[in-house]
Design goal:
Blueprint: H1 2-9, H2 11-37, H3 46-57, H4 59-89, H5 110-135, H6 148-155, H7 159-186, H8 195-222
């Protein structure tokens, strides 16, 4: 049992946990982005509220949220631990550091990007998830469902919140550009034939997901959707 614990506390074990939780969060982003993208139907949020209501009341989804929260916490904690561990392993900077010759800048900045995303998540969850799951939404749409759409519409009239979301989505894009392919590689799911396909799909995934999320606050703020 001790050897099992030591395996997951080692550098490789930490990266393995990062890979597993990262893939789980990647799958979650697909579902979350699909539900949120329903706002672009521009129907006053009726279909979006239907989807949001399903997510809020389905017992399987609610149970998955517990796993998701644990995954987010573990992913964040392990990411910070790896960052501090890497810094401690190199307490003195090289006199000449040409890191760009071996890796992209965002690959070397995952700790910073992850921290920015963690700050964003705290704001995001307090504005929407806590309201939806715990404090309750005071308004209903014409179908009698909780009007989370109206909550989003009101929140994104705040320009500073919109700016925060846009910066966070830039961070998310870069975070995913490194994390997507890295997760597969860490888990050993790499092959000379398939790795380029995974990497290419990861690039498109990162860009499309981030752009869709970034477009939502702007669409509300500019009145493109009502």
């Amino acid at each position: 049992m001790a050897s099992f614990g030591n395996a997951f506390s080692s550098s490789i074990g930490k990266k393995l946990i990062m890979g597993i939780t990262g893939l789980f969060l990647i799958l979650f982003l697909i579902v979350h982005c699909f539900i949120n993208s329903l706002i672009f139907l521009n129907d006053g949020g009726l279909v979006f509220n239907l989807g949001a209501n399903f997510m809020a009341t389905n017992w399987l989804i609610r149970g998955s949220e517990v796993i998701l929260m644990l995954g987010l916490i573990v992913h964040a904690v392990q990411g910070l631990r790896l960052t501090f561990q890497n810094q401690a392993a190199r307490p003195v900077k090289y006199a000449v550091n040409n890191g760009s010759a071996n890796s992209k800048w965002y690959s070397r900045s995952m700790g910073l990007l992850g921290t920015l995303l963690l700050i964003f998540l705290i704001v995001h969850l307090s504005n929407f998830w806590i309201v939806s799951r715990f404090t309750g939404i005071p308004t209903e749409d014409i179908n009698g469902r909780e009007n989370l759409y109206a909550v989003m519409q009101q929140a994104f009239q705040n320009i500073w919140l919109v700016v925060l979301y846009e910066l966070a989505m830039v961070s998310l894009c870069y975070h995913l550009l490194h994390g997507f392919a890295s997760a597969f590689q860490t888990l050993g799911w790499n092959h000379r034939k398939y790795s380029p396909l995974i990497k290419g799909f990861g690039v498109w995934y990162s860009i499309i997901i981030s752009l869709l999320f970034a477009a939502m606050p702007v669409a509300f703020y500019t009145g493109l959707i009502k």
